[in-house]
Every structure is written in C-alpha cells, then in structure tokens.
Amino acid sequence: MMIGLASINLTANALSAGLGLLGVFIFTRLFAPHEYGVYLLGVGFASVVSTFLAGWFRNLILSEHARDNGADIRGVVLHGYLLCCLTAPAAYGLGRLVGLDAAPALAAVSLAIAVGLFELTQDLARARLRALTALKGTLARATSSLCLGVTVAFVAPEGSFLLSSAALACVVAVIVQWSTTWRGTKSKFETPIRSVALQGLPLTLSLTLLAISSVTDRFMIANLIGSADTGRYIAGLDLVRQTLMLPAMSAAAAFIPMAVQIHASRGRAAVRSHLAECVELLFGATLPACLGFAAISPHIANVVFGADFREVAAQTMPILAVAVVFQILTQQYLHSSFLLSGRNSFYLINIGAIIAANVALSYVFVSDYGPLGAAWARLCADAFGFFVALALSRRAFPVPMPIGRLTLTMIAGLLMASVVVATDRILHVSDFVACVVLVATGMTSYLALCWLLDICHARRRLRAAFAFSRQRFANIAARSARQWKRSIATGVRRHVEE
After folding, report:
1. Could you tell me if 454 and 322 are in contact, meaning their C-beta atoms sit under 8 angstroms apart?
2. Residue range(s) defining the domain that contains residue 219
3. Domain assignment present for 467
C-alpha cells in the first residue's frame, strides 16, 4: 500500500515539477534577472507567511484526521484559518520591512493566503490517503501556474504580476479539490479553536522558523549584493529543491500518515519496523538523485536557464544538491520522531539551530564569496541541523537508523555518480543530449547496483512484483477464456433456437 501511495504522489509531483521546469525555462528567458529576483523573493516571503497561517492545523490534521475514526475536524480548521488570515495587514507590513516594494509585498501576501489554503486542502486529502485527489490538485495548480505565468510574461513581465498569477493558480487548485475535500464541512465543531491554537503553537513556530531558515540566505543576498544576483542564485536553489525533493515528499506523504495509524493501532515496535523500511526507501531514492544531479549540474544549467542565470547556477547547484540530502533526512524522517512523541518543542529547537547556523555562515560567506558562499553556508547549516535533529530524536521517539543498510545505499550512490562522471568526460554532444545519456546511464547503473547489493530489498520486491504480474496476467487470461467460452455457448444456443 505504501509503495502504491508513494507512486501516485511521485507521479503527481513529477508532473508538477515537469511543468515547473518548463516555467523556469520560459521565465528565465522572458524576465530580467531583477524582476525574476523580485518574484522569487516574494515566493520566499509567501512561503513563510503561509506556513504561519496553516501551521496551526497541520498537527491536528495528521494526528486526528489521519485516524479516520469518525471525527470531523474540517470545520475548526477552516474557521481557524480564516481567523489567521486577519493577520494579513501585519504580514504586508513585514514584507515592506524586509525590503519588498508595495506591489510585490501585496501580491506576496495574497499568494501566502492562497498557498496556505491549498496546503491545508492537500493535507486533508493525504491524511485520508486520498492520493488521487491530491494528484488532481497538484496538477491543477502546476498547469494553471504555468499558463497564467506565461500570459504575464508576454503581457506585463513584472515580478508582482507573476506573484499574483501564482496566487490565482492556487485558488484554481483548491476549487478543483473542494467537492472531495471540503464538501460537507460542518459549521459547528466540538474542538475549541483556542485549544487547537495552544496545541499547534509549538509546531507552528517550528515550521515557521523552518520556512525562515529556507529563505534566510536569499534575503541576505538581496540586501548584501542586490536582487539580480539573488534571482540568479534562487533560480538554481529552487530548481534543485523542486527536483530533488520529489521522491522524498512522495514517500513521506505516504509513510508518515501510515506511521501515525500504525503507532495508534499496533504500537511502538510495529511503527519502528515500518520506519526502518521507510528510511531505507527514502535514502535509497534521495541519495542517487542528489548525487546524479550534482554530477550533471553544468549541463542542466545550460539547458534550463537563460544566459544570464547559467554561470551562477552551474557553480551553486552541485553544493545545494548535496545539502538537500541532509534537509530531506531531517525534515522528512527525523522530524517524524517529534510527531510520534508529541514533542513539538523539539521542532523549535532544531529549526532554531539551523537558522542560527545559516544566518551566521551566510553573513560571513556571502560578503566574501557572493552566491557561491551562500550555497556553502546552506550546506553547512543543513548538515548541522541533521545532527541536531538526530540527537533530539534519541530523547523523543527513537526512530531506527539502520546504518548497515544505509551504508550499502551510500556505496551504490557513490559508484553510480562515479560512472556518470566518467561517462561525461568522454561525451562530446549537446547539453540536452548529454543530460539524457547521463541520466539513463545513472539510472541503469544504480538499478544494477540495487540488485547486486540488494538495496531496499530490491530482489524481494522485484520477485513480488513479478509474482503479482504473473497472477494478474493469469487472471486476465482466465477471464478472457471464460468470456470466449460463454460467447461460443451463446452463439451455439442462438443457432439451435433458429
């Protein structure tokens, strides 16, 4: 079941990322670096505000709505979110304070409200394991965002208008999912909003700080060296995250709600066994993707970005790709320890440590090395955050960390990256062809290593898949034979009757 849900989530995110990649390809050619930098700064600010608006209800959805025990918490979530949106004027003032102009600040706040409602809608669908509903919403948002963004690029290529189009795309996606996710929401609810706020306060602060930590470097670059270089750096950063977070988000969207259900119904030992399998799958999907991306980053930069963005992206993306490994393991796995133990304050401690490290390192490195220094600061801060989260998880819910199995995965990933680098040296083709050849080479070599080293129990899973396929084909053949015999019998009967 987990593999099926993760596959649906991965499909949705992969299609969304493909459309997003097409958007980056277009936007970095039609927008000036300054305007695109304004847009990316607005998106970063909106991510912080939307996290604050929606974070109060994330824990409630994961812990209560995921149980599917008859309790309907959608009413309190919707009413509470509308109350949180009353802080929009303060958010606008904060946007002006951090350096956004009036129009981008207003558009960013609108985007934050729309993103918050979209994320809550997605959380409600995923908590009930409605992966297809979440897929529809993801694709609706990605498609609308691309179409509206391209329209803006030709009509009025300004960062504030691009932010507004992104907000409208989120509204379209919510409308698509509304009947499935929100219909039947009761206006009366048993859980007081005050108690929900008190329960969600630690997690909200932690998630907000996490969002702040993810945008600290971009605002520091904007203040130290200007919006144009910020746009160049963030373009590469966002491409790395959107591409490499896909397998992790898809897997986590499946295994975290399942972990909550298993913990509630079957106890501690069962959920630890479940998580041990999950972390191996998570690492087995994440590490090769990150290492492969780092190996072919120069080709990706030349294919995806406009001429003004390529140099900075080619320099920073390999570093940022490695940083994503630590970020994924921290956010998508170790943080589940805090959720299962109810130690929401540990989110706060962990994210606070990441922010402190990122601010200090960014201030030192960005001043001297510009965008490249920001990438190194991000890598060091994410690695530091991983080890802090690992230490905290020992005092919360001790999630398993199968070192032996993960070491095999690391060996396979490094060998795969070596094969890709060696192949790249002998290629003399265009960047696009090089990307296709190197990705195919990396996937083939990694799959072979998975079989050889039995990464993620690949042999057992492959045998099970073959057995399932064989049984499925046998059932189809038997059904076809029965239908054929039935049709012959019917034909004979009609002939006799005539």
Report:
1. no
2. 2-456
3. no
Q: Is residue 358 part of a domain?
A: yes
Radius of gyration of the chain (CA): 24
| Structural tokens at position 338 | 């805090």
**Cα separation values, 40 from 238, 272, 288, Å:** 9, 39, 28
CA distance 346 to 365: 28
194: left (phi over 0), alpha (psi -120 to 50) or beta: alpha
Helices (H), 226-342: 227-265, 268-295, 297-304, 310-328, 335-341
Residue 417 lies in a domain: yes
Residue pair 186/134 in contact by the 8 Å Cβ criterion:
no
List pLDDT tens digits, range 411-437: 999 999 999 999 999 988 999 999 999
For residue range 30-84, what is the model confidence (pLDDT) as tens digits? Answer: 888 888 889 999 999 999 999 998 888 877 777 665 555 556 677 788 888 888 8
**Distance (Å, whole) CA 409 – CA 394:** 23
* Domains held by the chain: number: 1
Count CB-CB contacts under 10 A for residue 439: 16
Q: Using the 8-state DSSP alphabet, how is residue 62 labeled?
A: H
> Could you tell me how many helices (H) and strands (E) the chain has, helices first?
18, 0
User: Would 397 be classed as within a structural domain?
Assistant: yes
How far is it, in rounded angstroms, from Cα 199 to Cα 344?
9
